[in-house]
Amino acid sequence: MEKVPMTAEGHARLTDELKNLKSVERPAVIKAIAEAREHGDLSENAEYHAARERQSFIEGRVAELEDVISRCEVIDPKKLKGETVTFGVTVEVADEETDEETAYTIVGPYEADIARGFISTSSPIARALIGKRVGDSVEVSTPKGSKSLEILSIAIQ
């Protein structure tokens, strides 16, 4: 069974989502199905079909979260030492062509959120950065083409 690296914050977020699905969403959809059944003919009951579809989504997500949480390995980035890019650090990089600066926090695949600057350890950028030091230049193959990035700083969160 493959371990899934995760920060404590990411683990808490997934655990909260699972708890909400089990204690709030699941009972609500069961109640919605029961109410829809009371309206009679189920073959033409849109409310019933929508509630069943929602129930299917909830059950699938519960199974997925239980699997991920059971396999997760919570890693505290503060306990990691060194001057290289590793899991859990925030790395500031500059595009060598445009001088545009961007900060990325390297997290597990279930925590990735590019809008917040969180990138997965399996992303092309993270794979190129891991193991490098401040001042190093890395070549990254992205869907938009190849980029050269210079590492400006590394911060443990």
TrEMBL record:
Q: Which Pfam families match?
A: GreA_GreB (PF01272), GreA_GreB_N (PF03449)
- Record has Ribonucleoprotein as a keyword: no
Which keywords describe this protein according to UniProt?
A: DNA-binding, Elongation factor, Protein biosynthesis, Transcription, Transcription regulation
- Origin, by domain of life? Bacteria
Where the record annotates domain Transcription elongation factor GreA/GreB C-terminal, the positions are 83-154
Keyword DNA-binding tagged: yes
Q: Name one GO biological process term.
A: regulation of DNA-templated transcription elongation
**Which residues are in the Transcription elongation factor GreA/GreB N-terminal domain?**
4-74
Q: Which GO terms describe its molecular function?
A: DNA binding; RNA polymerase binding; translation elongation factor activity
Which purpose does this protein serve, as stated in its record?
A: Necessary for efficient RNA polymerase transcription elongation past template-encoded arresting sites. The arresting sites in DNA have the property of trapping a certain fraction of elongating RNA polymerases that pass through, resulting in locked ternary complexes. Cleavage of the nascent transcript by cleavage factors such as GreA or GreB allows the resumption of elongation from the new 3'terminus. GreA releases sequences of 2 to 3 nucleotides.
PANTHER family under this entry?
TRANSCRIPTION ELONGATION FACTOR GREA (PTHR30437:SF4)
The text of the family note is: Belongs to the GreA/GreB family.
Protein name in the entry: Transcription elongation factor GreA
Q: What organism is listed for this UniProt entry?
A: Thalassobaculum litoreum DSM 18839
Gene designation: greA
